[in-house]
Amino acid sequence: MAANKKIILTGDRPTGRLHVGHYVGSLRRRVELQNSGNYDEIYIMIADAQALTDNARNPEKVRENIIEVALDYLSVGLDPEKSTLFIQSQVPELTELSFYYMNLVTVPRLQRNPTVKAELQMRDFSSGGGIPVGFFTYPISQAADITAFQATVVPVGEDQEPMLEQCREIVRSFNGTYGETLVEPQIMLPDNAACLRLPGIDGRAKMSKSLDNCIYLAEKPEDIKKKIMSMFTDPGHLRVEDPGKTEGNPVFIYLEAFSRPEYFAEFCPDYQNLDEMKAHYERGGLGDVKVKKFLNACLQAELEPIRKRREEFQKDIGYVYEVLHKGSIVAEKKAAETLSMVKRAMRIDYFNDEELIRAQSEKYSQ
Ligand code: TRP
């Protein structure tokens, strides 16, 4: 087993461009972890095979979004020199691991997975005659993704908690059955409640492409502004002088996630920090337009360097695919090491098992 190495694995399904919910929920953290120098290995995966579990009839969508997600990764500052960026389907060992892990998980256990349950409510598989087996079992394949890289830490959003729990159960079950082989990973969640689950601009619980309530990382400056100025706020705050609610108010939740003290000094010097601004809103006398303008300034400041970097990478798409290709080769090597440990532990490494050949020979020589 990889003794005490600190290894990160995480990833995203390529079903659309990444948005600011992904950014505060996970991408920003990944870049910090990458640059902290505290990790021995970092793997960032574009989960195309997982995306295909509910897009089997629409592979073009997945195929096209691989480059979008890769561009988003590079533009937020993930650095191929420090982090291995790769494509899930190019590492066939992951599929093989999944197949063996499937024997350690029961159907009722999968049916209890709250994330899968919620996703099933949002999707309609009835036209295809029911839930695809691949979709139903994707938590198992996710355990393969994590364990293949011997990840110790998995930085993800809160919605991935059940996946991590499932993974840890598989690790314990595997190690209990076949001997200590796999590493049990820890989840790493965002430390700020606003970042844990950034609501949509419409105030709904989650930013999601299908709800059309996202601000994308690559969004144009004028569209960012339009979206923010149209944002849902406290519906009881009708006149400027009315007291307003900041709790549960998406504009203030976004400010929790994006504002920094230096942005107050630069864009809204009436307040030193968010607490002062909130207090004014709550006692009345602070209008939504002013708050939204400040939020717009913060977001523009955060997103501009990202958009600029993206524009640079967009000029050399060949380079981006090369990064993914090289990363996939590195990733496959690591996954192959784990797979061979797994097969040894399960004793299905027949051709490397001299003891097996000896024992069988002996049996037949009597
Ligand atoms: N389920 C994740 C998502 O939808 C993507 C993913 C696949 C993942 N495998 C993973 C995340 C392993 C963390 C670890 O975004």
Strand-helix topology:
Blueprint: E1 7-12, H1 20-36, E2 41-46, H2 48-52, H3 59-76, E3 84-87, H4 93-101, H5 107-111, H6 114-122, H7 133-136, H8 138-148, E4 153-155, H9 161-178, E5 186-188, H10 193-196, H11 221-229, H12 250-258, H13 261-267, H14 274-283, H15 288-314, H16 317-346, H17 354-364
Parallel strand pairs: 1-2, 2-3, 4-5
The protein binds tryptophan.
Task: Explain what you see.
The protein has 366 residues and is mainly α. It folds into two domains: 7-197 and 317-358, HUPs (Rossmann fold, 3-Layer(aba) Sandwich); 221-312, Tyrosyl-Transfer RNA Synthetase (Orthogonal Bundle). 55% of the residues lie in helices and 6% in strands. It has 17 helices and five strands. It has helices at 20-36, 48-52, 59-76, 93-101, 107-111, 114-122, 133-136, 138-148, 161-178, 193-196, 221-229, 250-258, 261-267, 274-283, 288-314, 317-346, 354-364, and strands at residues 7-12, 41-46, 84-87, 153-155, 186-188. A three-stranded parallel β-sheet has the order 1-2-3. Strand 1, helix 1 and strand 2 (41-46) form a beta-alpha-beta unit. The longest helix has 30 residues, at 317-346. It binds tryptophan. Tryptophan (TRP) binds at residues 9-13, 47, 50, 142, 145-146, 154, 156, 160.
